[in-house]
Amino acid sequence: MKSVLIILLLVCLAALLVAVALDMPPLGEPSTPANASPLTRYVIANAVRDTGSPNRVAAVVADYRAYDTLGETTVLFTAVAAILALERGRKDEKSNG
Predict the structure, then answer these.
(1) Which of 9, 36, 47, 74 is the most interior residue, by most CB within 10 Å?
(2) Residue 3 to residues 10, 20, 30, Cα–Cα distance (Å)
(3) Over the stretch 44-91, which tens digit does the pLDDT of each residue have?
(4) 8 Å CB contact between 63 and 50
(5) Could you write out the DSSP letters of every residue in 46-89?
(6) CA triplet 16, 19, 22: central angle to 5 degrees?
(7) How far is 4 from 88, CA to CA, in rounded Å?
(8) Is residue 53 within 8 Å of residue 60, measured between CB atoms?
(9) Distance between CA 90 and CA 92 in Å, rounded?
(10) Any idea what the Cα angle at residue 41 is, between residues 60 and 29, rounded to 5°?
(11) What is the rounded distance in angstroms from the CA atom of residue 41 to the CA atom of residue 29?
(12) Of 71, 17, 93, 11, nearest to 61 (Cα)?
């Protein structure tokens, strides 16, 4: 009975994903909601001039959202440092015990 419910749930999820994919606008269509934003139009028109970067994606990540990117990098670095510290502590416990 449990496996039948799981299969039914997965079929419903797959149907939902297909319905959403079919409802999406074509890739690159100018009338999509993301392209209708004034911010999007500003970035497309001024990214190269404002930042000096020939790549609009790099301009957004490195210049327009630099503090956000710095924060994400800090969180990632802290997580890696914590994992390495925990692993080193485990190795020290194994060698002493």
Answers:
(1) 47
(2) 10, 26, 44
(3) 889 889 888 888 888 888 888 888 889 999 999 999 999 999 998 777
(4) yes
(5) HHHHHH--S-HHHHIIIIITHHHHHHHHHHHHHHHHHHHHHHHH
(6) 150
(7) 45
(8) no
(9) 5
(10) 105
(11) 14
(12) 71
Q: Read off the amino acid at residue 10.
A: L
Retrieve residue 29's tokens: 């269509």
Distance CA 94, CA 85 (A): 14
Q: What is the pLDDT of residues 48-59, one digit of tens each?
A: 898 888 888 888
Give the whole-angstrom CA distance, residue 74 versus residue 57.
21
Question: And the tokens for 14?
Answer: 């797959």
**Other C-beta atoms lying within 10 Å of the C-beta of residue 67:** 8
Rounded-to-integer distance, Cα 13 and Cα 10, Å: 5
- CA proximity to 39, closest of 31, 29, 49, 47: 47
**Assigned token pair, 48:** 């190269």
Check: pTM over 0.70? Answer yes or no.
no
